[in-house]
Amino acid sequence: MQKNKQFKAKRLRLLPLILAATLGLAGCSPGISGATGPVRATTPTAVSANLGTVPDTPILAPTATPSVTVAISTTVANPESVALNFDPEQVTITLQPTIEGLDQPLFVTHANDNSGRLFVVEKGGTIQIYQAGALLSTPFLDIQDRVGSNGSEQGLLGLAFAPNYATGGHFFVNYTDQKGDTVIARFQVTADDSNLADAASEFLVLAIDQPAANHNGGMLAFGPDGYLYVGMGDGGGGGDRFGNGQNPETLLGKFLRLDVTGDLAQPYLIPADNPWVNADWNGVDVRDEVWAVGLRNPWRFSFDRATGDLWTGDVGQNQYEEINFTLAGSAGVLNYGWPIMEGLHCFRGNADCETDDLVSPVAEYEHSSGCSVTGGYVYRGAQFVVLQGVYFYGDYCTGVLWAAWPAGQVGWRTAQVADTDQLLSSFGEDEAGELYVTDLNAGTVAQVVLQGK
Predict the structure, then answer these.
(1) Rounded CA gap, 307 and 405, in Å?
(2) Which residues of 312-329 are buried (b: 16+ CB within 10 A; e: fewer)?
(3) Residues contacting 46, CB < 8 A, separation 6+
(4) Of 17, 127, 361, 376, which has the fewest beta carbons less than 10 angstroms from its beta carbon?
């Protein structure tokens, strides 16, 4: 294996950012490396599928919401999620170049409108369209005039098309503005050109002040319930410097759940069954937008299109990267543990930390194996049947791809499935469920494929 050599080459491309890593910003999303030397990839640790419990103080479920589930069995409840035929020793995963000539691509997705198009988010403030084997000459959206992208974790970071995009033409983006604050906004495609959005149609959904330039989150995704889920980082710095991960009164360090399609005249509505609408947390009111707490920087998360299960790659601090699994239908009221925990471990070696009420990750890896986890997707495409039900994720610095798949009562299994030279800024999927990765530095999108198929 030539991973050490590859990693050193990547470090040359990241030299302006290494200083930030040494100042305690390690393990951040694409742009800041937590590694200070060569990295040798190893297989992450797979752990039990237990999703934890609610906090000690009883929480009343909102009206018209079923009682909050206190604990989840290690049995995978969704039959469709079981990868029955996957054996990592019998397959060879590779990345097939698909799109070139991009400028710092951070995400790739589709509009679910039967057009077959891929939409690629570029950090500087543009969204490009790839259609019929070619990159279109005009961007789908260009908002460079309002996007602040000087920081390594700033820019146009997320894109989600409304479930009814094919008829309504609305989509949502997440970006940092010129002041470095988070903006979530709605845009409209033009009436006479499906390949061109109206940059002047911006409608502010939510603005969130950011105390630092990093840990902005950035991912947007519509869940199977039709609501928009927003992954917010803890506000940056190191070690949850601003105390947001376990602070119920802020939107930072949280999963937000918003109704952005119920009334287009309003920025958003609060879903009636959001978990803290009619409840508090240990006697303290929680923002009604919040669905879950205790996140450091959920750079990329996804919903399994077959089961609705939620998979999250939460970027770690100095030692551990983690993957979290949340069963479909969860009522929220979840605490993913940051900064009490980093991965499966008490943060900074605090042996006395209380973990009973926290969601445990289903996989983790140490920084000897990478620097920043890039959450991926469960494969649901048709080209490679053997990959059905397998969750793919990777590490931004090393380019290593891993697979995780459910194994009944024992939780999940994990295995390294590819060792690439990519700066894995994101995974994405097309309308058919085929998977792709973006390389921030090379300006490319590649498809995840089985070698020889």
Answers:
(1) 14
(2) bbbbbbbbbbbbbbbbbe
(3) 362, 363, 404, 411, 412, 413, 414
(4) 17
Q: Which residues pair with 220 in a beta bridge?
A: 230
DSSP label at 43? P
Continuous segment of H or E residues that includes residue 143: none
Distance CA 330, CA 121 (A): 30
- CA atoms 356, 235, 103, 161: torsion sign: positive
Q: 142 pLDDT exceeds 80?
A: yes
Q: Does domain 3-450 have CATH number 3.40.640.10?
A: no
- What is the end-to-end Cα distance of the chain in Å, rounded? 24
Give the pTM: 0.86
Phi, psi of 321, rounded to the nearest 5 degrees: -105, 150
Percentage of the residues of the chain whose pLDDT score is greater than 70: 80
Q: Which two tokens stand for residue 163?
A: 């479930």
* Residue type at position 149: S
- Do 377 and 392 form a contact (C-beta atoms < 8 A)? yes
Task: Indicate whether 273 pLDDT > 70.
Answer: yes
d(CA 412, CA 108): 27
Task: Say if residue 30 is preceded by a cis peptide, omega within 30 of 0.
Answer: no
Q: Measured between alpha carbons, how far is 223 from 344 in angstroms, rounded to an integer? A: 26
Rounded CA-CA distance 72/230 in Å is: 23
Q: CA 60, 65, 67: angle at the middle one, nearest 5?
A: 55
pLDDT at position 82, please? 58
Query: What is the H or E stretch that residue 18 is in?
Result: helix 15-20
